[in-house]
């Protein structure tokens, strides 16, 4: 592994980074067909940029002027891929700006990048080091760039995320109600819960308006809701949290949701298959619809009962039912078909 160095690269006018930076491992530079990749570590006020073929990093203000300056530098470099982490929203404006300019941008899971850094022996963590690691990650793993998000899809995602936050806060207040003794506290909790109910209802209406005003989203929502067990909230969650649904194969759909069995074998040992990873929030939102499907959807109900008859634990059978449900939904959107019992 290469050591820390104190150098900067010169490909823009912003202030050059100072201090210890991460230098790309020589054996990973230009790996496969990736000649130039750029890693971007984004924070609230600025973003740091590292190029796979050059040591050091450059810092730009996370403002329109800084984005334009960075784009001019990127245009001259002609990068094959730009990679940044999902940082709770700070990366969205920059990613959208660069995509609109025609650059290939991949927003990746921060946990995977940190695991990659540890695998490379990099324990230190600063903004500039992270930018270099992102550039190395781009070269080594070549993540797929994502398309620009449509305005209505971005708005829908924001509203759905806010709805989820309110649901969580309402649940917390309801849990506190169980332990409240004072009448004053109980009245306060009831008032807050009523407020949450009003706001959640308002968000539901706003989400419905966006879906109804989009021909593509409205058609997909109606198709999803034709499945017994899937209602408005579940359909909207799928459209927001799972935009790939209908464009991937069944294995990819299950893996993205996090319900695909994962092998845990080593030598002669055969471990228990487990599920995990994927989109946890969406799995939580699909749990109750899956239970509803187990009761009212013949395909899911028969499948679930077959697993119970075979001696499978109930929770394992529920996860398997969710697996089957997401595969059916993916197939429906892919083939532009509504629900029919033949999916069993």
Describe the protein in words.
The protein has 344 residues and is α/β, with parallel strands linked by helices. The protein folds into three domains: 26-141, Nucleotidyltransferase, domain 5 (2-Layer Sandwich), CATH 3.30.420.10; 149-213; 220-344, no CATH class. Helix content is 54%, strand content 8%. The chain is built from twelve helices and seven strands. The protein has helices spanning 64-77, 92-100, 110-119, 127-141, 151-177, 183-213, 215-225, 232-241, 250-257, 280-296, 298-309, 314-335, and strands spanning 37-42, 46-51, 58-61, 81-85, 105-108, 265-266, 269-270. The strands form two sheets. It has a five-stranded mixed beta sheet. It has a two-stranded antiparallel ribbon with strand order 6-7. Strand 6 and strand 7 (269-270) form a beta hairpin. Helix 7 packs across helix 8 and helix 10 (280-296) packs across helix 12 (314-335). The radius of gyration is 24 Å and the shape is globular. It starts with 36 loop residues before the first strand and ends in a 9-residue tail after the last helix.
Q: What would a concise description of this structure say?
A:
With 344 residues, this protein is α/β, with parallel strands linked by helices. It has helices at residues 64-77, 92-100, 110-119, 127-141, 151-177, 183-213, 215-225, 232-241, 250-257, 280-296, 298-309, 314-335, and strands spanning 37-42, 46-51, 58-61, 81-85, 105-108, 265-266, 269-270.
